[in-house]
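Dear Dr. H.,

I hope your travels went smoothly. While you were away I took the liberty of generating a structure for the chain from your last submission, since the lab meeting agenda had it listed for discussion. I wanted you to have the full record in hand beforehand rather than looking at slides cold. The sequence, exactly as received, is reproduced here:
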Amino acid sequence: MKAVIAGLLLVAATAHADDTFEAKAAGAQRVKRLENVVWALTATCDKGDDTENRQCRRVRDTRAAELAGATLLVDGDGDAFDVGAFDAKRKSLALSLTSCIRCSGVELDGKTWFIAGAGAPPTWGRDGKMKTQPLFDNSRAFSDESAAKAWQKAISNTRVQLLVKVPAKPTWTIDGRNGVTLDIVGYRVISPCDGTVVLATPPSAAAEADPLACRAVAAQPAQGASVDQLTPAVVTEAMKPVVEATKACFDKNAVAGKAKLKLTITSDGYISRYEQQGDFVNTATGACIDKALEKARFPASPKAKTTISYPISLP
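The corresponding predicted structure, in token form, is as follows:
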């Protein structure tokens, strides 16, 4: 009898261990550029000659077969996670995470593809960003407002990580917009500076800390550098050094093209999250843009985080 009970306890413990974010992520394919996934699911392979089209289809079909049934670990959209204002009556902050994987879409061969988790059809706001159903919608209690603000500042550069799978019919068109659906099988929001898990399903242990991510939390803006809002004019002024550095790279590399930069800026004026799309990804010019953005600073503003898209065209 003792052996039977011990066996049952072992099975239960093993099952519990398997029901974690880390367990589900074990063996998952790490995907840094979702454009590559979208390409494998949507490429028409009809823009070249016969040989080029056959080669394109062979590469596309091979990659699509690799994706079928696989679990992918991807970074979610920074806009998908939001922390509301402090509720003095309830002494809490509202936390929400939506199934929006790329709220502004990704650019591929001149076409924008939105990426969302499975569920109710998405809608779009006036800003052109996709709105999707919530994955998490709850609140976190604090002893007082100062404690809430301290916690909010500490997690100002959160990252969203998703475990997803490709469904049988992933592509869709709604209101003239093209999109791809991915089944979300797990998620977590972490503070990369110290690895703190803000929320997760299934449960997750602390993530590996990234000391470089602490800069956006610890650093302070230049004295007097503050605005009420990061308007387009303010953003353009702050991005001038980046644009100038990029043009200098063009003078050296002589490669024309377009880059689309998506930036999440903290209230301190530091870039907490950055994604580059377009022609220069994984190129010398793209690396030049990345390096220039490491030094970019924006004026401080009241908003906890501001997400912008900034295009750069060369020449």
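Two observations you may find useful: Residues 50-67 form the longest helix (18 residues). The two ends are 78 Å apart (CA to CA).

With kind regards,
E. W.
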